[in-house]
Fold this protein.
Amino acid sequence: MSDSTPDGWETQLRQNREEKDEFFAEHPQSPVPPEHRDDFDGLDYFDPDPDFRVEAEVTVHDEPEPVEMETTNGPPTRYLRVATFAFELRGEDCKLHAYRQENSEDDTLFVPFRDKTTGQQTYSGGRYMEFEPEGELETGDTVTLDFNLAYSPFCAFSETFACPLPPEENWLEVVVPAGEKTPEFGED
């Protein structure tokens, strides 16, 4: 997000949400089961909140440790813990680890997490964020983690998907009312 005006991120966020809702409603690869797509009128989100855009200090792991993550529907999957983000959120010191699948050439970091909304306002299996570094991350760098971008994995919509569950080291002890809420459809 290159727009640095105070609400530029919010404009971009709202646009991203509209595009995602359209994809979920109409695309053949939508995770929303076909029988629910006609009634689907968009995901339920927390309101955008700048307090959930946090500055995090990076620690890069030069020799990443493998982490095996349980999945919702299938065998565990292995990731490498490539970085740790340390930040303050709601007055608490927090840490989230960022992962990359083994043998992946993708620069995007996978940041699965649970928080005190998990299983209540948000999907019981946790939520995900993706972090795309603008260059090579180095220990001591400061980056912005935006929990407004937190999303529910595809398995929140259908049991046919196998999704990694956030490991216990990524369970936050704070309430993070930002990003996507639990998908609601077909629960009549």
Q: What stands out?
A: Residues 1-5 have pLDDT under 50 and may be disordered. The radius of gyration is 17 Å.
